[in-house]
Amino acid sequence: MTEQFGGIILAGGKSSRMGTDKGLMMYRGKLLAQYAIDLLRPLCSEIIISTNDPDYEQFGLKTVPDSFYNCGPLGGLHAALSESRFNYNMVVSCDVPFVVPELFSLLLAERQGADVVVPVHQNGIEPLVALYRKEVASLLEIKLMAGNYRVQQVIRSCHAREVAVDGLLKRYPDLFRNLNAMVDL
Ligand SMILES: Nc1nc2c(ncn2[C@@H]2O[C@H](COP(=O)(O)OP(=O)(O)OP(=O)(O)O)[C@@H](O)[C@H]2O)c(=O)[nH]1
């Protein structure tokens, strides 16, 4: 049987730079969160939206609130991975509309034996557009309970496998561009 994957959209942030919930902002005729949904839908058997806002129920997908509230993306990742039914989960932020499915093909090809598979390029790793095993949730719980909310540091301590994506970035220079403020729109 072919392996099935979960999808997780991180959409529970404060959006303080945008001033309004960015996943629900319209960008080029589509809500930002919808870009993530359209990306993951053909790749994943179930999509979870990690959010504390009931407005995300409009997408008709499972929504999961943070159990570690106000702890940043790691809190959302922890809650969604805990609820996932799948071994590997494709995670994407709600504010990166230029991610292409090929990125996840590259990460999936490197998943054997890895708990986290994360893209890396000359500016560092991209832990919020990455592949996570469900069991990483228990490690995240330990880190969150210890008050460690630093995404890059925590993910590197998971022995993440880093996959160079410079070739893909040459073809898609905006691949990881995130829309954080009105000026980005
Ligand atoms: N579930 C959940 N997701 C979060 C949380 N904080 C950030 N995120 C998500 O993680 C991604 C990156 O978040 P940031 O842009 O760094 O933070 P933000 O709070 O959304 O925005 P700013 O307040 O402008 O920094 C976005 O998709 C957020 O929705 C959180 O506490 N819980």
Automatic annotation (TrEMBL):
Cofactors that this protein relies on: Mg(2+)
Catalytic activity: Mo-molybdopterin + GTP + H(+) = Mo-molybdopterin guanine dinucleotide + diphosphate
Location in the cell: Cytoplasm
Protein name per Swiss-Prot or TrEMBL: Probable molybdenum cofactor guanylyltransferase
UniProt-listed GO biological process terms: Mo-molybdopterin cofactor biosynthetic process
EC number: 2.7.7.77
Organism, as annotated: Mangrovibacterium marinum
Gene name of the encoded protein: mobA
Molecular function via GO: GTP binding; metal ion binding; molybdenum cofactor guanylyltransferase activity
GO CC list: cytoplasm
